């Protein structure tokens, strides 16, 4: 049965763009991914189960399209462009505590993460899915979600100089 | 001293993914061990760092071709005009009121009956329910109406699109959330051509409606918002037909 996901899809566009940008690191690639996601979602609307989260379903589609694209290109991660990123940071939403330089470091650090760590970081920390939802989107066990997520977050903080030097990658808290 | 909790456990505490008993144990451990407290703080700040880095994306205008894609329509080619800042301040206020938006899974969809013809995957143009159609043909902008099920209805504004069709933007809001939509007058009825969920129920993250709506309005070549006199004249004209 087909449902009227068109309404939902339109409202989801800002979040899909954010998600795509975070996992791809490129505004242009992100919008290509969002467009492809819309086409695929509308074509497969009947396979979405009403009552389940549409956003998770859409993220899953988008993430799979991104993986396909990486596979075709034979590249590992996002090709981040710092000048481009600078344009992305508008006056609105730019937190006072972060200088522009720090934001660039954050973008670079996220881009530098292994793809499997980056996607779980984005799905949980940016899109605020639970561990179980992340496991469903990525089709991996919840324990894997947690171990990748913990590594991603520690590495992010180390790469952005926010860990105070107290943690080393994979190290034990003392 | 080595923490008796793993990184994953402390992270799960930060993310609200542990039960109350474990949370209490971790809090007690953190109070006694600065190293544990620092690790908890690190995981909390890592989440904020990611969110802040991408916060601005939600407020960026959505490219019109993406709105067209989401609606299952081919994008207009080469004739997308810049959207004039035509809306009066009352419109801006109405949108600001709707600024805390959430994507809803259930609720207002019943007001719009999808015809299932055309479009992709069975999602085609929608015709409004008889009740909504009736109000679109009579209610002036700004007037609050109450639907049979108790939901509030009001027209935000009227305008002509590029093809000189009479179009109206309206909102429906009820307990289950709300919807912001644009309908245009066809030969015999109102065609709902754009709609997005708004509202606060359902636990979804707020998103910006203006980023999407402005893009859509630009795409259909929405003109100046009509004066109340002009709107009245067009409504009366169509009632007589």
What does this structure look like?
Chain A has 8 helices and no strands. Chain A starts with a helix and ends in a 15-residue tail after the last helix. Chain A has 174 residues and is mainly α. In chain A, 47% of the residues are buried. In chain A, helix 2 crosses helix 3 and helix 7 packs across helix 8. By secondary structure, chain B is α+β, with helices and mostly antiparallel strands. Chain B has 8 helices and 7 strands, in the order αααααββαβββββαα. In chain B, strands 1-2-7-6-5-4-3 form a 7-stranded antiparallel β-sheet. In chain B, strand 4 and strand 5 form a beta hairpin. The interface between A and B is large, with 71 and 69 residues.
Fold topology:
The complex is a heterodimer of chains A (174) and B (241).
Chain A (H helix, E strand, L loop, with lengths): L4 H20 L2 H17 L10 H20 L8 H7 L11 H13 L2 H12 L4 H8 L3 H18 L15
Helix pairs in contact in A: 1-2, 1-3, 2-3, 3-7, 6-8, 7-8
Chain B lengths: L6 H8 L5 H13 L1 H21 L9 H7 L18 H9 L14 E3 L11 E3 L1 H7 L8 E2 L5 E9 L5 E9 L2 E9 L4 E9 L11 H10 L8 H13 L1
Antiparallel strand pairs in B: 1-2, 2-7, 3-4, 4-5, 5-6, 6-7
Helix pairs in contact in B: 1-3, 2-3, 4-7
Question: In a few lines, what is going on in this structure?
Answer:
The complex is a heterodimer of chains A (174) and B (241). With 174 residues, chain A is mainly alpha-helical. Chain A has helices at 5-24, 27-43, 54-73, 82-88, 100-112, 115-126, 131-138, 142-159.
Low-confidence stretches of chain B: 77-125, 200-206
| Overall residue-averaged pLDDT value of chain A | 80
Secondary-structure-derived class of chain A:
mainly alpha
Q: What is the approximate shape of chain A?
A: globular
Number of helices of chain A: 8
Helical residues, percent of chain B: 25-40%
Strand composition percent of chain A = under 5%
Which two chains have the most extensive interface, and how many residues on each? A-B, 71 and 69 residues
Distance between the termini of chain A: 55 Å
Strand content of chain B: 15-25%
Overall radius of gyration of chain A? 17 Å
**Structural class per helix/strand content of chain B?**
alpha+beta
Q: What assembly state would you assign to the polypeptide chains in this entry?
A: heterodimer
Sequence of secondary-structure elements of chain B: HHHHHEEHEEEEEHH
From the alpha carbons, calculate the radius of gyration of chain B and give it in angstroms: 24 Å
